[in-house]
Amino acid sequence: MRASKRLELIPPYLFAQLEQKIAAKRAAGVDVISLGIGDPDMPTYEPIVAAAQRAVADPSTHTYPSNRGRVEFRRAVADFYRRRFGVTLDPDTEVMAAIGAKECIFNLSLAFLDPGDVALAADPGYPVYTGGPTLAGAEPLLMPLIPERGFVPDLRAIPSSQLERARLMFINYPNNPTGAVAPDGLFEEVVELAARAGLLVVHDNAYSETTYDGYVAPSFLATPGAKEVGVEVFSLSKGYNMTGWRCAAIVGNADAIEHYWRLKSNIDSGLFEAVQLAGATALGPELDEHVRSMNAIYQRRRDLVCSALQQAGVSVSKPKGTIYVWAPVPERFESAVAYCDYVLEHAAVVISPGDAYGASGEGFFRISLTTPDDRLSEAVARLREL
């Protein structure tokens, strides 16, 4: 059987390859500790599970869901955005359920890009920012995120010839994989550029609820004019330990969401309504304390990892958000892949090479904090010994 030509344009998905490496090592009897994949190790908060159990038992959730999303979920998202970000959303036109942030971001490429179009994508960044445009027949144009600029794109460096063809811009703060947060003025610059160039901005808001040291992440939509040029994809995966539930929402520009709905109604049959009702519970103010407790655990783990790396001579800064630590590769290694392979072979620890997220990630590696404390301590001890 022959795969489509479009499929041959993209490499195998990074985390699928990592899972294969881990399985092979463990099959050989090696005690592998994986710090590669950002999947919370603690269970979904109990009130969310209880709400889902009630909803699953309700026959009204057993039929085809609406692609728009159940009204309780859309209202819960709008209420959360008003309470958390000070952003007013119309739950009927500016909120729509999504089957996870990843599929939502990918489908936005199908909805807004044609062959020959350009999508501006952060480099390094979540692979779907480039894979989606590529599979849609468009061209991803990488915006380098480098430490000298605080891992913020230089919008003035985008070639005018490419900007004329650009229709989408993907941004993400707090940022995966670098852990950077948006500096003052960045979102305003993005809004100005998008309005001038006719871009739809897609802000991947996966980590706004996972922050440390008193930092509170804003919504892109709180920026004046943002709703006129953009949408935000809000995911419950990380902040609420709900990665497997595939529960997210796209919010913002009503026209963009209408186009997205038209595409989605031809692709899938919507998000299971019991999951939506569980998501509505997650977004209530009663769950805020659960989120704070989870962040305290991640902050402790962040401090453990950064301290160990610093003791080993690695120059690393503590991130203010996300569940990752982004650190430079030791100088004696020729590449990030070479270092990560060395760590796997000699310490049986899985870490992610930075260039897997884009060319500008070369020279860095990413450690995920989603590992139980005892295993994380063992992993950093092994890294120190190297």
Q: Any overview of this molecule?
A:
The chain is of the alpha/beta class and 386 residues long. The protein folds into two domains: 7-43 and 288-385, Alpha-Beta Complex (Aspartate Aminotransferase, domain 1); 46-287, Aspartate Aminotransferase, domain 2 (3-Layer(aba) Sandwich), CATH 3.40.640.10. Helices cover 39% and strands 14% of the residues. It has helices spanning 14-27, 46-56, 71-85, 101-112, 128-135, 160-163, 186-197, 226-229, 254-264, 273-282, 288-311, 336-347, 373-385; strands at residues 33-34, 95-98, 118-123, 139-144, 166-171, 200-205, 230-235, 248-252, 324-328, 349-350, 352-353, 364-368. Strand 3 (118-123), helix 5 (128-135) and strand 4 (139-144) form a beta-alpha-beta unit. It is globular. The model has no long low-confidence stretch (mean pLDDT 95).
Might you state the CATH topology name of the largest domain?
Answer: Aspartate Aminotransferase, domain 2
Mean pLDDT: 95
Report the span from N to C terminus.
45 Å
* Helical/strand content category: alpha/beta
CATH architecture of the largest domain: 3-Layer(aba) Sandwich
Based on CA atoms alone, the radius of gyration comes out at: 21 Å
Q: How many separate structural domains?
A: 2
Spatial arrangement of strands, main beta sheet: 2-8-7-6-5-3-4
Proportion of residues in extended strands? 5-15%
Order of helices and strands: HEHHEHEHEHEHEHEEHHHEHEEEH
What proportion of the residues is helical, as a percent range?
Answer: 25-40%
Biggest beta-sheet profile: 7 strands, mixed
Globular, elongated, flat, extended or rod-shaped: what is the shape?
Answer: globular
